[in-house]
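ESCALATION

Customer reports they have been waiting on this structure for their group meeting. Please prioritize. Original submission:
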Amino acid sequence: MGSQEKKITAPIPVPGTPEASGELADLLSLMARLRADCPWDKKQSNHSLIPYAIEEAYELGEAVQGDDDEDIKGELGDVLLQVVFHCQMYAEQGRFDMSDVITTLQEKLIRRHPHVFEAETLQDEAAVKERWDEIKAEEQQARAARGKPHRRLDNTKAGSALMQAQDVQKQASKLGFDWEGVSGAFDKLDEEIAELKAEILDKPQVEIKTNIREIEKELGDCMFALVNVARKLNLDAETATLTCVHKFKSRFGYIEDQLAAAGKRLEDSDINEMDALWEAAKQHERI
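Update from on-call: job pushed to the front of the queue and completed.
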């Protein structure tokens, strides 16, 4: 007699006002309560949470760099929240629950460490890495057997959208799918910008709002094309963007400081005054 398929049921919401117990089961029940009673949590989907998961991973990295225990605990908790949130929603769909996720992780860790749990002996880190890659290849074969074949661009590294865009372009370039020089990348960028403008300029707001998903795609094409320019110049798109972010924050901080010195708040200023201070910030950078 075969084993019965596991029936997936979502955690039961915790009643009343809960206390922080440090127990995973209580956390799952708390998440269930939020999904039942919080308007924002009820509105979310697995897809809507993707940006938050990425953001929390980056914030955890910053906390570790800062080496403050309270910040690290908080950010680890935020990452855990994403896992719990996703598991709650998939359990609601009857697909899988937290115990399935933990079991899958345990199986993977045991499978990928035969030198720890079996008789294999690996002498150094390089040997461990080589064996790890062999096991991952075996896993890919098993995945292909389930109807999920491994494609050449499946090796794209996980990361931010800019990082993935640049890596997938590199992978395609190695297979001959690329322009010879940067001019082709610039031509494609100009083409995509023109298509984006055609979707927006001289269009009524109601039409723009109705067509926002197509506009989103066109905007993505522009950003992807710009990443291609960076790649052809041997520049890292992520680093270039972060440099711009830090520069913007620094200049805006200068505006805020100058207004504060004059006894004003940002809310009390206007675009003309802030723009003048922005130009002053640029001059200040050159000193």
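Sent to customer with the following note: Residues 11 and 25 are 8 Å apart (CA to CA).
Escalation resolved.
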